Amino acid sequence: NTAGYQSLVILMPLYFATSVIGQLALTMRTVRAPVQLVSASLGNVLTQRLAHNVANGVSNVPIIVSTVRWLALASLTFVIPLLFWAQDLYALVFGEQWRAAGTYAVLLLPMVVANLCVSSTSKMFIYRKNHVGLIWQTCFAAGLIGAIVVGGMFESPLLAVGLYSAVGTSLYCIHLGLTLKFAGGSWKSVFLPS
Q: Cβ of 94: how many Cβ atoms within 10 Å?
């Protein structure tokens, strides 16, 4: 997971100027910080509850579904302002030279929201599916690295970041689907009324 995320800053210098890397580093730090804080806090509490339910034969599907829904709804508090004013916000807070970081932030929003919704609830080890988790982590790292390489081949940092976000978002959705399957549910649970 860390290798996949850090690949953006580690591999991008092979293809793009240091100014692009600086913009991306700031973007990654600012958009991921709130997610990491929420995920870590919520994840610790949920992991214990999810493991307790599994040990006692109680379905985790309702907890996973309600948590994903609430986190998706809560993410609108930062998604909406960033969608419309990201460049202006970055320029206002960090200075005019950081305006491009706002563009990268918008491209990364789908992945950030998917990460927020999935990371605190998708704990494959609770279901004794570490081998599946390892395969997912390997695909995650390889997919993100591949996205950067493709963007680099086309000499487009926007394409690299856009593909990176699309691949990451897709893989987080797959992770959530697998976790729901292991918990005895399905993707439909997230979209159907409770």
A: 15
